[in-house]
Each structure stands twice: as C-alpha cells, then as structure tokens.
Design goal:
four-stranded parallel sheet; single chain; 12 strands; 2 domains; Rossmann fold; alpha/beta
C-alpha cells in the first residue's frame, strides 16, 4: 500500500492479488485498479498453486505493463521459477522485492537448505532482473551466499520500508503495562515465546496479539495450554485489523518474538508511535535497536532475566516519556517516513524504466562476458557482512 500511495499520482497502477481479506481497505479508497486472481495465497496445494500461477501469467500478459513489480513471497518464487525455466518471457523489466531473506537463522534446517539452494539456482539462471532489498545487510548476505559475481548479472537496489500511522493521541494508564505484538500466526512469529514471556512478567502486564489467525479458537486453545489461566486472562486476541492505530495508541511498548524477519513493518510503526521496541534476537534485530533510543534485544538469556530487562526498559521510558517518545519519532522521521519512501520509490521506478538491464546469459557457471562495471562493483555495491 505504501508503494501505491507513493506512485499513484505519476503512474497507472494495477494491483494483482488473491481475494481481499481485510488488508486492502485503503487500496479501494485510493481508486487504484485491483485484479483478483485466486490461488495466490500461501497454501500447500499443487492445484491451488497451479491455478494461481496460470491466472497471474494470464493477467500479466493481458495488461502489457511497462514494469512488473512482484512483492509477495509465493508469486515471487513462482514467477522466478517460470523465468529460470524459460516458460515465461516477459517483454518488460521485472522487479523483485525481497522483504526478508528466504533462508537463514530461525528457519527450519530443511527449509533453510532447500531455499538457499533455490536462491543460488535462481540468481544464476534467471534472466537479468531488478532485485530490491530492504537494506544493504540483506543485499550483502545475498551477494555472499549466491556469489557476488553471479548476483552482478542482476541490478541491485535498496529501498527501505516505511510506516504511515499518522499522529496518535497518547494514553496514560499507570495501573497496567500493555505490550502489543503484530503478525499472522505461525512458526515465524513464535507466539508461544510471547506467551511464556508474559508469564515471567509481573501481574500488571498485559499482552495484545494482533494479526490473522490470532482470533482462531484452536490457536487460542493452544496458547491457553502454555500458561496458567490467570496469565491467559491477561492476553487479548484481536484477529486481523485494518490498521494497528488503536492497539499502539494504548500500548506501552511493542514486542516482536519472531525467529526471522526482514525489516518488520510493525517495528517501524512502533518507531512512528514513539514506543519502546522489544525484539527477539533475529538476524537484523540489532540493526533496528542500534537506531532506537529505547530498544531492547531479548532471547539470549532466560525468560526471567528478559522480563527484568523489559521492566527496567519501560520504567526508564515512563520516567521521561515525552522526551523519549520525541527522540524515537525523530529517528523514524529521518529514516522511515512516507515522504522519504515516496522520494526513493519514484527515483527507483524512473531508474528502472529509463535504463533497462541488458540481457545477461544463463549463469550455471561464472560468466566471463559480463559488463566490466558489474563484475568490478558487485561486492562493493552490496558490502558482504561477516558470516
């Protein structure tokens, strides 16, 4: 939605997705054209996936766009496989956004191995693409893991995320401390860890879980089995929300217990709201915390130690809430505001359309005929972090 908002005044945008489940409320109000293709949601069903892929290719071919920009992980994988196998040959630039690394620490070992192999194969065999990462760290890991000389066949861009909650009124309830966590249920977010953490916190702490699946009775029954009844009674399950304004307005801190992330939008929204953030030790968490005046990484110690550190963090924030909140919002404004994102997104689209990538051959092995500037600058443009 942020991309649509940034580009809709200068471009004719068509959004293709599966049926809306509450996330496109703002999209309809923007007047942007929305095409529904069934089968684009994540589901382990070959007929479902094949139907979605056929429908997506059919719409893309009919639209005759100047640029195809793919975001969701499942369509990204399907389209890249089709291009690698030369089963689909688009006649316009294709941009791919990596919202998070598809492998790495926190993934199941088998999923990590398969996805890492797939990524190496796709980088080596796909026609040249515009690959968009959320930060230089992610681009550097991709260069390290797929070999920078092969990644240089493609054009690498950095486009950080943003958030756009608009100003929130502050609340003042000293009797309780409210933590808010956002995201769909599943292995990645690890809500089990969040429930056990609440169990280690004092009785005046509350936890609100927002996102698809949190309203499910089976999920709630599972969580109830992890903690005492009294602790479960201090939890609120909202289900999916059109936006998280109301939840963050009443929060004292934002919690994220994910096993892995890219640049989580929920954390950026907490920056915008001027809240402390508490992140589990996933790859990239320290990057966010290093910018935050009142942030904390947990998960390296036992739960009771983490709980004590959370209490100290929130107490410190509450002692000078106005000044701390202003400092946090200033970081957000200078880094992840909609204005900065819109400027960068428009510049990126112009760069892609005004200077298409020359076709690069298959790269099952190192290609000697690459353009010299790409070979020389591959590692320099996307610095490789220490493993």
């Amino acid at each position: 939605m942020h991309l649509v908002t940034a580009l809709k005044d200068d471009t004719n945008i068509t959004v293709i997705s599966d049926q809306d489940q509450g996330g496109y409320t703002d999209l309809f109000q923007s007047g942007v054209r929305h095409v529904v293709v069934r089968g684009l949601t994540n589901r382990l069903s070959l007929p479902h996936l094949w139907s979605g892929l056929q429908g997506l290719i059919r719409v893309l071919n009919a639209e005759k766009p100047d640029l195809i920009w793919i975001h969701a992980r499942l369509p990204v994988l399907m389209i890249r496989l089709m291009m690698a196998l030369r089963l689909w040959r688009p006649v316009c630039p294709v941009a791919i956004t990596h919202h998070g690394m598809p492998y790495g620490r926190g993934y199941h070992p088998l999923v990590h191995a398969i996805c890492k192999w797939l990524e190496k194969m796709l980088v080596a065999t796909c026609p040249s693409q515009d690959l968009i990462f959320l930060n230089h760290r992610m681009a550097g890991w991709m260069a390290r893991d797929t070999r920078a000389v092969r990644l240089a066949r493609h054009r690498v861009h950095i486009l950080p995320n943003c958030s756009d909650l608009q100003p929130l009124p502050s609340h003042c309830d000293k009797a309780v401390r409210r933590l808010v966590m956002t995201g769909r249920t599943g292995r990645q977010k690890d809500y089990d860890f969040a429930a056990r953490l609440l169990n280690a916190l004092p009785d005046h702490y509350r936890l609100t879980l927002c996102g698809p699946g949190t309203e499910n009775a089976t999920f709630q029954t599972h969580i109830a089995g992890l903690v005492p009844a009294e602790v479960f009674s201090r939890m609120t399950f909202t289900g999916p929300l059109p936006n998280v304004r109301a939840a963050l307005q009443n929060a004292d801190a934002y919690l994220l217990t994910s096993r892995y992330e890219g640049t989580p939008i929920g954390a950026l929204e907490a920056f915008e709201a001027g809240l402390p953030i508490i992140l589990r030790d996933f790859e990239g968490a320290n990057d966010l915390i290093s910018k935050h005046p009142c942030g904390l990484v947990i998960g390296k110690d036992d739960l009771h130690t983490d709980a004590n550190r959370i209490e100290a963090l929130i107490d410190r924030y509450q002692q000078d809430k106005t000044a701390k909140s202003r400092q946090i919002k200033d970081v957000w404004k200078s880094t992840w505001s909609p204005e900065i994102f819109a400027f960068n997104a428009r510049a990126l689209v112009k760069a892609i359309l005004n200077s298409p990538i020359p076709y690069a051959p298959d790269c099952g092995h190192d290609v000697q005929g690459q353009r010299p500037d790409h070979r020389k600058n591959a590692a320099a443009r996307v610095p490789k972090p220490q493993p």
